[in-house]
Design goal:
484 residues, Sodium/glucose cotransporter, mainly alpha
């Protein structure tokens, strides 16, 4: 193990542990209900923290390891695809933010499923949403755990030991600190990500002798690497359309980003977060994926896509800067895992246990606190065990999880907020058809000729949602709770 590389990572992990400890003290002193404090931080996020937690939650192992690895393999075409994600903060907060915050406060919603429960007044909608969330979040969290372990591998730590260290850290501070620990670490991790990304890109350009020399080396390998369509014409028009839906418009249906619209303090915080979040997303996406694409001209011949960024980091940067950079992608991975882990726990504790099994538990802070800690830790342990035998290509695992969540949640959230005629029957039909249709198309994706399954899934689920809603009557009480 290279100690100079390891020291910045160890310091970073120590800071994260300490933030979790401070957040746990805040929970103990909080006068609000435990559920509100643990799962939504008592709606107290300011603009900077909101922006950084939104970006850090969205930017994951796929963006820092899998995506740049694909840019290394495919070329600048993948960099252009990645830039589709720049408007995510603007779309999430601009489209959902104000409406969602008003409604959430009115109905005292802590999670996305709380909103679905009140809006549709249907137990099956909440149960299906909770189960789907657990299934697809498990896949997403596995991808993040693998990414974290790969980073430890880069500094000479065996995969399973690295996986254990990563899992222990993220499970610890998420379980004991809840939402407040998540957003505070996200804000810190966002800064680390930006510093690490900038250091790597500058290091690659310097090691390659400048942009002109790097471009010449890439052209010598394959001129198509510098075209918008990538090596072998990999980036096709249907693929570009898919990305606009999957990682741009579709983010409105991701529970772990949408829930940020519930937890901010006021409108000023939201407006500030839109500006900061859009800038930070653009900065990270451009520099990280460009680093992957340019790395092909500096260090050709890396075969495993998911090892591209760790390998470039260790080979190109001085040890101390390599450690700082590796803390950047580790921050992005942790900041995604903690949010997904917390929402998976909320789906069990708040949405199912307190919502239907034992509603009286909501008034017993000690009992709910103890169960929440146990459930959050247990989910983390299960994902750790699954990640012990890792599949390859993190980016595809992550995109599958994204697509599954969007297939289930997109129309029930958007139509539930903005269409009074939306009914439980429409939402239920859309969710069931969405998850079945998406999984089937993912299994037989060859019939789509390069298009991601989420595109036809969106069309079909929209039609099903509208038809189901017109075939049933909306709940007058539910509409009043949301609009009046």
């Amino acid at each position: 193990m290279n100690l100079q590389v390891a020291i910045p990572i160890v310091l970073y992990l120590a800071i994260v542990f300490y933030i979790g400890y401070l957040a746990n003290r805040s929970i103990s002193k909080a006068k609000a209900s435990f559920l509100s404090e643990y799962f939504i931080g008592n709606r107290s996020m300011g603009g900077f923290v909101l922006a950084m937690t939104l970006v850090a939650t969205y930017v994951s192992a796929s963006s820092f390891i899998g995506g740049p690895g694909m840019a290394y393999k495919v070329g600048l075409g993948w960099v252009l695809l990645a830039m589709v994600q720049v408007p995510t903060a603007y779309l999430t907060l601009g489209f959902l933010g104000k409406k969602f915050a008003i409604v959430a406060r009115k109905i005292n919603a802590i999670t996305i499923n709380d909103f679905l429960r009140v809006r549709y007044e249907n137990k099956a909608v909440v149960v299906i949403a909770s189960v789907s969330l657990l299934i697809f979040f498990t896949a997403a969290i596995v991808a993040q755990f693998i990414g974290g372990a790969r980073l430890f591998e880069a500094i000479g730590v065996p995969y399973k030991i690295g996986l254990f260290i990563f899992a222990l850290t993220v499970i610890f501070y998420t379980a004991i600190g809840g939402f407040r620990a998540v957003v505070l670490t996200d804000a810190f991790q966002g800064i680390v990500m930006m510093c690490g990304t900038f250091a790597l890109l500058i290091g690659i350009i310097k090691a390659g002798g400048g942009m002109e020399a790097i471009s010449a080396n890439i052209i010598a390998q394959d001129p198509a690497l510098l075209t918008p369509f990538g090596a072998g014409g990999f980036v096709t028009k249907p693929f570009i359309l898919s990305f606009w839906i999957l990682v741009c418009l579709g983010v409105l249906g991701l529970p772990h980003t949408a829930v940020r619209c519930i937890g901010y303090k006021d409108s000023r915080s939201m407006h500030r977060a839109i500006v900061i979040g859009t800038f930070v997303t653009g900065f990270l996406m451009l520099e990280m994926h460009l680093a992957g694409a340019l790395g092909r001209g500096v260090l050709p011949g890396i075969e495993v896509v998911d090892s591209v960024i760790p390998t470039l980091t260790i080979k190109i940067l001085p040890p101390i800067f390599a450690g700082i950079f590796l803390a950047g992608p580790m921050a992005s991975i942790m900041s995604t895992v903690d949010s997904q882990l917390l929402l998976a726990s909320a789906a069990i504790i708040n949405d199912l246990y307190v919502g239907y099994i034992n509603p009286e538990a909501a008034h017993d802070n000690y009992r709910v606190k103890r169960i929440s800690f146990i459930v959050t830790a247990l989910i983390g342990v299960i994902v750790f065990l699954v990640a012990l035998n890792p599949p390859s290509l993190i980016v595809w695992i992550n995109l599958f999880a994204f697509g599954g969540l969007e297939a289930v949640f997109f129309w029930p959230i958007v139509m539930g907020l903005y269409w009074k005629r939306a009914t439980a029957s429409g939402a239920l039909a859309s969710m069931i058809v969405g998850v079945v249709f998406f999984i089937c198309l993912s299994r037989y994706s060859s019939i789509l000729h390069g298009m991601h399954p989420i595109v036809p899934t969106f069309v079909v689920t929209f039609i099903v949602f509208v038809m189901g809603s017109y075939m049933s009557a909306p709940s007058v009480d539910a509409v009043k709770k949301v609009w009046e």
